[in-house]
Design goal:
The structure is a single chain. Helix content is about 40%, strand content about 15%. The protein has about 400 residues and is an alpha/beta fold. It folds into 2 domains: about 5-255, Type I PLP-dependent aspartate aminotransferase-like (Major domain) (Aspartate Aminotransferase, domain 2, 3-Layer(aba) Sandwich); about 260-390, Alpha-Beta Complex (Aspartate Aminotransferase, domain 1). α4 packs parallel to α5, α4 crosses α9 (about 230-240) and α13 (about 320-330) packs across α15 (about 380-390). It is globular. Pyridoxal-5'-phosphate binds next to α4.
Length: about 400
Amino acid sequence: MAYDPSKRGRATSSVHGGELRQQEANAITTPIYQTSTFWFQNSQEVMDYQEGKTDREEYGRYGNPTWRAVERKLSELEAGEESVLFASGMCAATTTFLALLPTGSHLIVTNDCYRRTRQFIDEFLGRMGVEVSIIEPSNLAAFEAALRDDTVLFFTESPTNPYLRVTDVPAFVEVAHARGVKVVMDSTFATPVNQRTLEEGADLVIHSATKYLAGHNDLLAGTVTGSSEIVEPIRKALGVLGGIIDSHCAWLLLRGLKTLSLRMERHNRNGDALARFLESHPKVRRVWYPGLESHPDHEIAKRAMLGFGGVVTFEIDTDLAGAIRFIDATRIPYQAPSLGGVESLIELPVTMSFWDYTPEQRQSWGITDSLVRLACGVEAQEDLIADIDQALSHV
Ligand SMILES: *Cc1c(COP(=O)(O)O)cnc(C)c1O
C-alpha cells in the first residue's frame, strides 16, 4: 500500500503537518524565529520581494517562519487552503468581523455565543452601523426568517457553551449560500479532530487555540482557516490591527498541536465516561453532552462529530450553597475558566463567566445556580469519576 501524504490521517497530520522536513542544522523541530524583522542583501532583493517574485518574510507584523509552520499544520488539519494566527481567540474573531463586515451591513449570530464576542458585536460593530439579528442555536427556520438582502455573515459556535448545542452545518450552509451569505463557525469546542467543519461547507473556521489546539493551559492564541479568498483580507486586517502572536507562543502552539489527535482521544473518552456517570447519579438533575442520547442535538452530533469532546455541563439537584460545597470539595479539577487543556478545569457559570449579569439575564440564558461546567483533562477516567463522586457527597 502506497503512503499518500495528501490523504494521511489526523494523527499523522498533527505530528508532521506543516513541518519542513529539512531544518537548519538537521534539527527535527521547527526553531523559534525570535526576530522582529528580516533583512535584504540589496535593493534588487527588496524590489523582487515587492513585486512578489520571491517568497520570504519582511517585517514581524506580517509573518514569521515559526507561525508559518503552525499555519500550514492547521490548514492541513482543517483541510483548508490558508490559516492565520492571532494573539487570542477574541483577536481572531474581532479581526475577522472587522475585515469581512462592511459599514451598514447585517450579521446573524446565535444567542449563546461567547459573551465577549457578543459584547464586541454590541459595543463596537454597532458603531460601524452593522446591524445584528440574534437567533436560537440550531434553529434553521429562525435563521431563514432573519436573512436580509444586506446580510453578509452568519456566525455561530458548535458545540456551544455551556449547553453544547450542535449546529447542522450543511443545512445552514445550503440556506446561507443560496442568499450569498458566508458561514463562519467558532469550532473551539469541536476541534478539527472531532468535526470536519470546512468539509461540511462552512466558509471559515475560528478557534480559540488557547483551548484544545494548544492543550496545556499555558498560552493564549487564536486561528482562522478557510479559502485564501476569504482569509487574505483577514490577514491584511491583522497586519493593520496588529494583534499578532509572538514567535515563542507560536512555537508552544506548534508543540501542543503535535499531540492534538492523541489528546482528543482521551478528552473524548473522559467526557463520555463522566457524562454517563453523572447522568446516572441521583444528585444530578440533568446532563448536557452531545454524545448522550438525551441531548437535544444528539442526532446531528452523531452525524457530524467523530467524538464529543471533554466538556460536560450538568445541573446538580441543589441550590447555590450546595453547588459551592460540591465544587469546593473537588480535588482533581482546578476551579478556573477555560477548557481543553491536559488539566481538568471546573466552574460554576453563575459565579465565573456570568456573575456580572442580572438574575433575569442569567435566567433567559438558562444559567441556573447549580449549573456546573466540567472540562475534562486527560487524567485517568476512574480518578475523575471517584473525585466527582466524593465531591457530590458534600452537596
Ligand atoms: C475561550 C473562547 C473564546 C475566546 O478565546 P481567547 O483565546 O480566550 O481570546 C472564543 N470562543 C470560544 C468558544 C471560547 O471558548
